[in-house]
Amino acid sequence: xxxxxxxxxxxxxxxxxxxxxxxxxxxAGATMRDIAAESGFANGVIKSYFASKSDLLAATYLFVYEAxxxxxxxxxxxxxxxxxxxxxxxxxxxxxPELHDEARVVLSFLAEVAQSPDHARTTRETMAQWRTWIRxxxxxADDDEELAAEVELETAADVLLTYLLGAQxxxxxxxxxxxxxxxxRQLDHVVAQLST
Length: 196
Prior knowledge:
Blueprint: H1 7-25, H2 32-39, H3 43-49, H4 53-76, H5 81-92, H6 97-113, H7 117-143, H8 153-174, H9 180-194
């Protein structure tokens, strides 16, 4: 009797192996051969699921993005306004070693974005979702009179998104000695600038 293969599970295992390799060795170390070895599959198996390393990297980016969104939904479920915005930022900012590892994956994928219109579109779509959430929480904060009068919602949403993406870059540049608490202080400063 032929073995039944769970293709979704196999794709996930390949993505998780890619994530581990990028965290441990960086994008340069994420060769198809190393990913296959890390996942325990033959090298040719990857081609059955991902046409290229770039496509595997895109799937790994989406895996991290979706994991972040699940955490955001849990952490913001009973919050609104600036409290929800702060909870969201704490799931995106590299304020723990695990979130720092996720930032490495995001930045590795963004290097691919410059070379691929398809991957650029994927990134725009994911960031559009976050921008929508940020704008919604800012509107709630405005309705609840938490925002300073001079805050312009659209500009503030774009600035916050830019800050979050820039923070991931800064965390990777900072290396292993990065001060995780420093991002928490920065977030306090950013939220204070919005508050009444």
